[in-house]
Amino acid sequence: MFRVLRLVNYQRSVLAAIRIPSQTSVRAIQSTSQGGNRDQGDRRSGRYDGYSIGIAVALVGLFGLSQRRNREGNRASWCDLLPTVSARTTDVGSRRREFNFIADAVELSAPAVVYIEIRDRQHVDFFTREPLTVSNGSGFIIDPNGLILTNAHVVISKPHTMVTVRLPDGRTFPGTVEHVDPASDLATVHIQCSNLPTLKLGNSSDLRPGEWVVALGSPLALNNTVTAGVVSSTHRASQELGLKGKDINYIQTDAAITFGNSGGPLVNLDGEAIGINSMKVTPGISFAIPIDHAKEFLGKIRDRPAGRRASTDGPPFRRYLGITMLSLTPAILRELQQRSHNFPTDVRGGVLVWKVIQGSPAHVGGLQPGDIITHINGKEVKTSADVYDVLKGTTKSLAISIHRGQQLTTVKVDPEDASE
């Protein structure tokens, strides 16, 4: 309290000293004006001398206060009374470091994310003479000796295709598809490499709606593309999506999952994989396979010899069309109509084409992602099971009626024998 009073008294003395020059200068100016012999330059000189005296008095007062405070045992100098401004030069308390939780999760998980490319040996690029890329996707390393987890639809293609895996550091390796389970849409790929970074598998059972998640992958062959969002639903049953032969409760998220993201990890803020990116229906509606389901798949193949595929129970693929599709249930139709102004309002069902493999019969015939299949050869299509049933038949050519935006059209597709 006494120190505060002393500081107040000192400030008053400084202000009084500063006021002295103005009074002195006024008297000097008055005296010169009475004498009438001094010029204007002398008046300025008198005014400046007065201010100099005031500043000198203030400095003397500061010096005296400093000496008195030192005698009282206070080591602080008179400079402590002046305001100070400092710039933060370290990361301690940095908002970037404190709030960039997405970047922290990516830093942990991105080194284990790989790009997977599917090439057709029977078709080569005109300029490079390399096998033509027909599809691509993502995956992530779960074993340092080169075991990669991905989606089955990423690596299942024509029999005469080859798999290439590119690591984040740019190295490229041929990949061997070891285990495939179309029913769960999961597969493993192995490359001959060791001491690789791996991604920790988390738990999807305790995932909560509204929780932040990050989707990593390689859309359009762009390595480690990152999108973020929240979990919309933790248990979106495959029956709700009209997926035949699958018993999976998908994770629904608004994190963008494009075609190249398929097979990549969906990670939580601890950098753990809690899902495998599977499909995007429309912006804001994407789905991922829960990591707990993938753990069951990995447990089943652990004791199975390498090179043998997992059970292929599920829809029979006697003929090859080259699309990945999603049945349009009433719930999905409502969401699509609410989110997209270009979505046809007269559609009451059908199958949404969300991926077309390049060079496949569907691609050659003119099918495009986003098309809605309503009829095949005049027969109504309500679910993906109806398309599978058509592919079991022997009809050589398929007339497929589709909605493309607001336009209704028909394309002709000639499926291939899957055994070719």
From TrEMBL:
An annotated Gene Ontology molecular function: serine-type endopeptidase activity
Annotated Gene Ontology cellular component terms: mitochondrial intermembrane space; mitochondrial membrane
Alphabetized Pfam families for the sequence: PDZ_6 (PF17820), Trypsin_2 (PF13365)
The reaction(s) this protein catalyses: Cleavage of non-polar aliphatic amino-acids at the P1 position, with a preference for Val, Ile and Met. At the P2 and P3 positions, Arg is selected most strongly with a secondary preference for other hydrophilic residues
Chain ranges of the PDZ domain: 333-406
Localization annotation: Mitochondrion intermembrane space; Mitochondrion membrane
GO biological process per UniProt: apoptotic process; mitochondrion organization; positive regulation of apoptotic process; proteolysis
Membrane topology label: Single-pass membrane protein
Gene3D superfamilies: 2.30.42.10, 2.40.10.120
Keyword annotations: Apoptosis, Hydrolase, Membrane, Mitochondrion, Protease, Serine protease, Transit peptide, Transmembrane, Transmembrane helix, Zymogen
Record bears the keyword Transmembrane helix: yes
Cited InterPro entries: PDZ (IPR001478), PDZ_6 (IPR041489), PDZ_sf (IPR036034), Peptidase_S1_PA (IPR009003), Peptidase_S1C (IPR001940)
Thylakoid keyword on record: no
Function recorded in the entry: Serine protease that shows proteolytic activity against a non-specific substrate beta-casein. Promotes or induces cell death either by direct binding to and inhibition of BIRC proteins (also called inhibitor of apoptosis proteins, IAPs), leading to an increase in caspase activity, or by a BIRC inhibition-independent, caspase-independent and serine protease activity-dependent mechanism. Can antagonize antiapoptotic activity of th/Diap1 by directly inducing the degradation of th/Diap1.
Family in the record: Belongs to the peptidase S1C family.
Record protein name field: Serine protease HTRA2, mitochondrial
Organism: Anopheles sinensis
Lineage per the UniProt record: Eukaryota, Metazoa, Ecdysozoa, Arthropoda, Hexapoda
